[in-house]
Design brief:
mainly alpha
Length: 304
């Protein structure tokens, strides 16, 4: 009788363990989908920034204000206001501050240097995120992940080699800080997985409003540009929430690598909207990035 019960307990343990593994796998896949959606949406950012004459601080103000409004509306509709703000904790405030600094650097970087240069610098995010997560969270960095990151860097390098124009050091340095801050942002959600996704996004936008009012003149822009920036705010809200939700479910290095999918996608959207046909370098480099990203997904247990 005792042996029968022991066998039964072992069988139940096996079922429970199998269910836990299945749930973990589903959770990971959901995270991958969310980050890919975020990358697709983020790939349109350059179009909004380059498509208006408004200055960087004016864009930061209206993008932040509309992003905060749309995100709060989404929170209220889901009935998660208390969860997103009252229990925001250290992780939430850290994500909000780091996210704000990254946004403050990102918009002027796109104004001061080319989208291709910003994309090249941002491609270093997987390496930075993986190293930070290794030292802070204890996530191991495998050879497979490092090779995938190098392939992504090579792909972006090929894209940039086919672009025309000079580098702007100030814009490149801002893009570098944006890359570091986004890597830290992703690791924060791995370190504090219970941190709400939407609340910190709202706070990061609101934190920049006083600075934008002081350094810029947001009420001087024409109405048609205001409408464009309102749409930009909606796009940014969707991309930010999906990124933070996905970052909870996927290791930091892989999350940053997946988010690099916006690099080959941005020229494609530019072609569809402005009839700018991607160069051969863009197709080749973009293909390498896609291969690098999806190579990390074949075997969940072989990479971080």
């Amino acid at each position: 009788m005792a042996e029968t019960e022991q066998v039964k307990d072992l069988a139940e343990f096996g079922i429970n363990a199998g269910n836990m593994e299945t749930d973990a796998r589903k959770n990971h896949y959901h995270g991958v989908i969310l980050i890919v959606v975020s990358a697709v949406v983020f790939s349109t950012v350059g179009i909004f920034v380059k498509g208006v004459e408004a200055g960087a601080w004016e864009i930061i103000f209206w993008r932040g204000l509309f992003s905060a409004i749309f995100t709060v509306f989404w929170i209220l509709k889901r009935g998660t206001f208390q969860k997103n703000f009252h229990g925001i904790g250290v992780g939430g405030w850290s994500a909000a501050i780091i996210g704000a600094s990254g946004s403050a650097a990102f918009i002027p970087a796109l104004k001061l240097t080319s989208i291709a240069n910003v994309a090249l610098i941002y491609a270093a995010a997987p390496l930075i995120a993986a190293l930070i997560a290794w030292g802070w969270v204890g996530e191991r960095v495998t050879l497979k992940m490092l090779l995938a990151c190098l392939f992504a860097l090579l792909g972006v390098g090929i894209i940039v080699s086919g672009s025309v124009g000079g580098l702007n050091l100030r814009g490149d340095l801002l893009a570098l800080w944006m890359t570091i801050s986004m890597a830290i942002f992703m690791v924060i959600y791995r370190r504090f997985p219970k941190t709400p996704a939407a609340g910190p996004v709202v706070l990061s936008s609101l934190l920049l409003l006083p600075c934008a009012l002081y350094f810029g003149d947001p009420f001087s822009i024409p109405f048609h540009e205001l409408a464009i920036l309102a749409l930009f705010g909606l796009v940014f809200a969707v991309a930010s929430v999906t990124l933070t939700e996905g970052a909870k479910r996927v290791p930091a290095g892989q999350a940053a690598l997946l988010s690099a999918l916006d690099t080959p996608l941005a020229p494609i959207f530019a072609w569809l909207i402005f009839a700018e046909f991607p160069t051969q370098a863009t197709w080749i480099g973009g293909g390498l990035i896609v291969v690098a990203v999806f190579s990390t997904l074949w075997n969940r247990n072989s990479g971080t």
